[in-house]
Amino acid sequence: MHTHMVAHNPVMSAQGQYSYLFRQGLQHLGEERWLEAEKIFSEIISHKSSYRENGRSAKDLLKISRNERKGRQALKNGDLRKAVQCFRDAENLERTIYVEGLMQIEHLEERAKRYLEDGRFRQAAWVYDQLLREFPTNDNANNWRESQSACWHEELVPLFNAGLVEFENKNWVDAKLKLGEVVCGDPDFRRHGQAAGVLLDQCKREIRQIANANLNQGNLKDALAGYQEILDMAKVKQVEELIYLQDQGEKVAKDYRNKEKWAKASAVYEWLLTLDFSVNKQNEWQDLYNDCQEKAKAARLFDQGMNAMTQKKWQVAEKKFSQAKHIDPKFQRGGQRVNRLYRMAVLKHTLATLFP
What we know:
The chain is mainly α. The protein has three domains: 1-91, no CATH class; 103-231, no CATH class; 244-354, no CATH class. It is 78% helix and 3% strand. The protein has 16 helices and six strands. The termini are far apart. The relative contact order is 0.03.
C-alpha cells in the first residue's frame, strides 16, 4: 500500500501523489479488493475531501467500494435485502439484478411452501412452473421440477379418481372433463395401471358414437353438442348447416301450409327430402310431403268445383267437390268446407233436374 506519499516522495507534488493513489484505488476496485480500495480513497479524502479525477470523486468511489464489500458480505450471510440495497448504492446494476432474482426465487419458494402446507397442490405446481420458466438454469431447477411433478400428482389423484367413477358409470362428458384436466396437468398420468390419456380417448370415442347416433336420428342439437364437446369442427360445421337448412326449410313450408298454399309447401318438403338427414326426419317430411300433395290435389278440385258453381254447372261442381271430399272429408279453403259445398251442389243439381 502506497500511503503518505508526501513523506516518501518529497519531490512528487501533492497533486501527483493524489493521482497516483487514485489510480491505485481504481485498480483495487477493478480487482474487487474492496478494503484496500476503501483505505486508499479514505487516505485521499483525509487530505483533500473534494478530490476528483476524470469526472469521478474519491468520495463516490469510497462509497462504491464500501457498498460492494458490505453487499457481498450480506449476500454471503443470506441477507438479500441488505445486499440488494448495497449493490444499488454501489451502482452495480448486474449484481442488483442478480440479487433481485435471488429475492424473487426466495419469495416464490416461500409461496410454494405455504401452498403445500395448505394442501393447495395445483397452486404450488404453478409456482414451480413459474420458477422453471423464469430461472431455467438455476442450480435448483431439477428440485423444482421434481416438486412440480409431486404437486401435480397430489392434485390430480382426486380428479383422476372422480373421472374414473364417471367413466365406469358411462357418464362420458363428465368423465372427459375430469380426465381432460388430469391430462392437461400431466399428459403421462397413470394410476393403478390405468392411463388418464387412454381413458380420455375412450370417452371421446363414446361421445362421438352418441353424436353420430343422434345425427342419424335427426337429433341435431344433441349431435351438435356432442361434436362440440370433442372439438370435431368439421362435423360441427356440417350439423350447423343442416340445422340452418332444416329450420329455414321447415319455416317456409309451415308458412305455405298456414296460407293453404299446398303445392308450394309440398315443393319445399320435396327439397328437404334431398338433404342427408335421419330416417325419422325423412319419414316425417315424406308424410308431410304426401299430405301437402293430397291437399294440393284437393285444392285444385275445390277450385274447379267453385268455378263450376259460378257457371251453374251443378253436376260438374258436385263431381269435383265429391272428389275433393274423398281425398279429405274435412278439407276447407278460404273458410268454406268442402262437405257443405258438396251438399249445396247436390241440391242445386237435383233441383235443376226436377225443374229444368
